[in-house]
Amino acid sequence: MVCDEPVSALDVSIQAQVINLLAQLQEQLDLSYLFIAHDLSVVQHISDRVAVMYLGRIVEIASADALYDDPLHPYSQALMSAVPIPDPDQRRDKLVLQGDVPSPLSPPTGCSFHPRCFARLDVCPRESPVLQDVGGGHQVACHRYPGQ
Length: 148
Hints:
- The protein is an alpha+beta fold.
- The chain has a domain at 69-148.
- It has four helices and six strands, in the order βαβαββααββ.
- It has helices at residues 12-29, 40-46, 64-69, 74-81, and strands spanning 2-4, 34-36, 49-54, 57-63, 132-133, 139-140.
- The chain has a four-stranded antiparallel β-sheet.
């Protein structure tokens, strides 16, 4: 079942009810969901595996735990640094991306994230990285990892 932003316009209590209903239906009917969302806290709660996309391309796929504990792609790292921590005594350094998001109609050459990437290499503007397994089913499309 495809769920495209199913809880984005709902208040928190209604979000919880919808998520609980989805979990109940998944259990009863043995369903799989493609859950598309911008709310990373909800994604972490509901997902077993997560794919991160930038300009329409998958840049990282991993188990939810692996992605939230150790994101590898610089875009994933920036996204995860923005996820709120429920403990007010804990702080996280936020990675703030510079520049504007390029047009998806005219993406940059090479890695589409390179104009905003804080860890870009010389090869990034020239060659588009391929999605590759870096162990444990964790896949990343970034020249910073072996095999690229």
